[in-house]
Specification:
The protein has 215 residues and is an alpha/beta fold. The protein is built from seven helices and six strands; from the N terminus they run H-E-E-E-E-H-H-E-H-E-H-H-H. Strands 1, 2, 3, 4, 5 and 6 form a six-stranded mixed β-sheet that branches.
Length: 215
Amino acid sequence: MNEAAGPDASPAPPSPLARRFRGYLPVVVDVETGGFDATRHALLEIAAVPLDLDADGRLTLGETASAHLVPAPGMQIDPQSLEVTGIDLDHPFRFAKEERDALNHVFAPVRAAVKKHGCQRAILVGHNAHFDLAFLNAAVARCGHKRNPFHPFSVFDTVTLAGVAYGQTVLARAVQAAGFDWNAADAHSAVYDAEQTARLFCTIVNAWPAPPPAP
């Protein structure tokens, strides 16, 4: 193996994507949970979509990483949340991971994308993004995880962006306003919601003029 390609290799020089967002890599995240309180309710699903650039320099979706999670010990699950998400914790093909293993599974490709683009770290993009970040940070704290690639408090929120761009703040309506189909039967899956949010974010950013280069 080429030493420069090893796990401890230095990051690449900043790419246009890194320069576009001050050294941060936008990564779209969606979580499905056992309730609304990140300190009490379990994290049940997580999906992350690192963003990339196409040949024309336009923002596009990278490869999605996702995991189902075994509820962490002591965390609660509101049955009403399961009714909304449709999550069956006992489904034989759920293949849920323990919390640390799930975070490792999702964080590894995010860190690889950060290094690929010469970014400092990832920044979470989400619809009501602080909700997703709160559950992510709570899981990181429970595990004592030391390699969280995400900024601890800054986010890009597509609620605000879609409100400005389309006058819509509900994800389904904003996605449709951006020109994409919305399948209500697939909603409330972390992968589906993350990928639809990623398409929404890319469409809004690609329509916005790029800022001039820094002096």
